[in-house]
Specification:
This protein is 62% helix and 12% strand. The chain has helices spanning 3-37, 51-61, 87-97, 108-111, 136-139, 150-162, 172-211, 222-231, 233-246, 259-265, 271-295, 305-316, 322-332, 336-361; strands at 41-48, 75-81, 99-107, 122-127, 143-149, 250-252, 300-302.
């Protein structure tokens, strides 16, 4: 090892506690910044170079570094996003919480040739801002923040594992295969981002049409059902009536997605069908809820209880056969015994409610 490299290694040994202290500061800052931005990310990683890794880098780079401060990735953070178009959003967050040395930062997306495919990542060289009362010795240390998508991260990890460092180290045929796979990952990254945009546009359309009572023919899916429950005036009045009866019960938010299969089985396939179910069965559904409260006052009420009650009411106040009801519960129960118990419960409720109706009409 060159004497200069030995000097750098000695510097690293002495400075390691500073890097550890810096890591303890910048990682929480990064996590807080991402959380505040509302961005969903796959993960935030950090590491301090191992001594062996630094030694290998110095030997490989030969005369590139004169001092430890010249090496900007001793401490490294990595933010992995789900979507490639979120990389720039993360970069904005990084710029807001750290000082970014744009001159020495590298955007691999811009550096790579337009005719090539390969490693794509945004690398910012950062330091703590000097105007926030951080220890002066820590504000002098530069560190690296890498930002890349999940698929870019997958590519980089595989590339690293296979030891693919440059075009001269890999046979031409294999290098071509590398490029093909990298191209596929780029296309997939782009497609995922485009799908997200389309889903966002669809959500906005569904929300608008439900709010304007124009969504009658919209098919039920995860998005349309969720938006219906949030923005339908009729459904919100129904849920308000349930919550009023629930008194001091805690409201637990849950996804309504699991009820799509139930509703489909009952022939409720569109927003219009769901509105019809609500119109016909909401009084019965509220009656069932009152019965539940009478049996045992509920401490918690899930936000999907409206759908549960409407489905139950449809089964009770209908002419569906026992076989059909059993088939319904077999789709949604843990086992056949549970399905049979639920079926008997519906049949008992049906008999009870019909008897009650006869008495009241006499």
């Amino acid at each position: 090892m060159r004497s200069n490299n030995r000097s750098i290694m000695d510097e690293f040994r002495k400075a390691r506690p500073d890097y550890e202290a810096l890591q303890e500061i910048v990682v929480p800052m990064m996590e807080k910044g991402i959380k505040k931005s509302g961005l969903g990310v796959q993960g935030i990683e950090s590491r301090i170079k191992r001594r062996s890794s630094l030694e290998e880098k110095l030997n490989r780079k030969r005369d590139k570094y004169d001092a430890l401060e010249d090496i900007t990735d001793i401490l490294g953070l990595r933010v992995i996003t789900f979507f490639t178009d979120d990389v720039d959003k993360v970069a904005k967050v990084v710029s807001e919480i750290f000082h970014v040395d744009k001159i020495h930062s590298v955007d691999q997306r811009e550096v790579i040739s337009p005719t090539n495919f390969g490693y794509l990542s945004l690398h910012y060289i950062c330091s703590l801002p000097k105007d926030q009362e951080f220890p002066e010795n820590l504000t002098r240390i530069r560190f690296e923040v890498q930002m890349r998508s999940s698929l870019q991260h997958t590519w980089a990890e595989i590339e690293h594992d296979l030891g693919y460092k440059n075009d001269f180290g890999v046979p031409r045929g294999i290098m071509r295969e590398f490029a093909q796979v990298a191209g596929l990952l780029e296309v997939a990254d782009k497609c995922f981002s485009e799908i997200r945009v389309k889903m966002s546009n669809y959500e906005e359309t569904v929300r608008r049409e439900i709010s304007e009572d124009k969504a009658y023919d919209l098919p039920l899916d995860t998005i349309s059902l969720r938006e219906f429950m949030q923005h339908s005036k009729q459904f919100n009045l129904f849920m308000q009536a349930i919550y009023e009866r629930a008194k001091d019960a805690e409201i637990i938010k849950v996804s309504p997605e699991s009820y799509l299969e139930n509703l489909d089985f009952l022939g409720v396939k569109t927003i219009g069908n769901l509105l019809e179910l609500l119109e016909k069965q909401q009084a019965h559904a509220l009656q069932l809820f009152e019965d539940m409260q009478a049996e045992s006052e509920l401490d918690e009420v899930v936000t999907s209880i409206g759908l549960y009650l409407l489905c139950q009411a449809r089964l009770v106040w209908s002419s569906k056969s026992e076989k059909s009801i059993l088939k319904y519960f077999k789709k949604t129960s843990r086992n056949d015994d549970q399905a049979e118990r639920r079926t008997r419960r519906i049949l008992a409720l049906r008999e009870e409610k019909h008897v009650g109706e006869k008495k009241s009409s006499q």
